């Protein structure tokens, strides 16, 4: 069984299309999205509608929650006031852009999902089972705490925008990275494929796409230059 997992698309339609094309070539049985469909880039409606068209199983991310309910706070932890200001600009733009129908879709997304594949129970969340916006960074105290009490075979999340896999005794913590706003130092879109058998094997894929067009659209729409820089560099 091969499960593709995508996450943190953040309104980046070109990256999403490139990843879905790549997935199509790799003999995948099912695709799951762990949230944050919207924010930062300029195609939130198109991203939502493409995922709906493809019937991709999708979890709610903190940005989806904020836009769906028009909260005007994204739930991210930004110690730099400038980053917080930019996040507010992104959120306001996205709330104004997303249609009422698509906001309703975001509101109806589940916070978590547990699926069974070949005897393995795999939980999908955005941040963590404890909070939608909790960062389970690799080797972090938070990850140790969560996995210390985790009852399923694998936990798959996003939110950090950096893909990784780590085993905690007989349980796996897997981060799907980010399709639309990677933070691993490359502008390429990234996602994962989980091969389910006696053990779990995780492939991390990096997909090139025309990120310069996305960066130019960000600037054309009056969003912060920092967003375009992030897309071009793959850095936070």
TrEMBL record:
This is Phosphoesterase. Keywords: Metal-binding. It comes from Caloramator australicus RC3. Belongs to the metallophosphoesterase superfamily. YfcE family. GO terms for molecular function: metal ion binding; phosphatase activity. The lineage of its organism: Bacteria, Bacillati, Bacillota, Clostridia, Eubacteriales. Its cofactor is a divalent metal cation. The keyword Metal-binding applies. Residues 1-196 form the Calcineurin-like phosphoesterase domain. One of its GO terms (cellular component) is cytoplasm. Its EC number is 3.1.4.-. InterPro entries: Ap4A_hydrolase (IPR050126), Calcineurin-like_PHP_lpxH (IPR024654), Metallo-depent_PP-like (IPR029052), Pesterase_MJ0912 (IPR011152), Phosphodiesterase_MJ0936/Vps29 (IPR000979).
């Amino acid at each position: 069984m091969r499960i593709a997992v995508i996450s943190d698309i953040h309104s980046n339609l070109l990256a999403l299309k490139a990843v879905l094309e790549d997935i199509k070539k790799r003999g995948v049985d099912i695709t799951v999205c762990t949230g944050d469909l919207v924010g930062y880039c300029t195609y939130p409606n198109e991203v939502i509608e493409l995922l709906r068209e493809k019937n991709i199983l999708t979890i709610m991310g903190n940005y989806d929650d904020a836009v769906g309910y028009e909260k005007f706070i994204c739930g991210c932890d930004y110690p730099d006031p400038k980053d917080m200001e930019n996040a507010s600009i992104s959120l306001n733009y996205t709330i104004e852009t997303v249609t009422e129908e698509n906001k309703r879709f975001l509101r109806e997304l589940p916070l978590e999902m547990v699926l069974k594949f070949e005897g393995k129970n795999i939980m999908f969340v955005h941040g963590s089972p404890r909070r939608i916006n909790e960062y389970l960074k690799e080797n972090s105290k938070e990850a140790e705490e969560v996995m210390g009490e985790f009852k399923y075979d694998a936990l798959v999340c996003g939110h950090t925008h950096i893909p990784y896999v780590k085993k905690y005794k007989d349980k796996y913590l897997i981060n799907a990275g980010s399709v639309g706003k990677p933070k691993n130092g490359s502008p390429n879109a990234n996602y994962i494929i989980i091969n389910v058998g006696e053990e779990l094997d995780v492939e991390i894929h990096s997909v090139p796409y025309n990120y310069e067009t996305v960066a130019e659209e960000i600037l054309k729409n009056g969003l912060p230059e920092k967003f375009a820089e992030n897309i071009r560099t793959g850095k936070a």
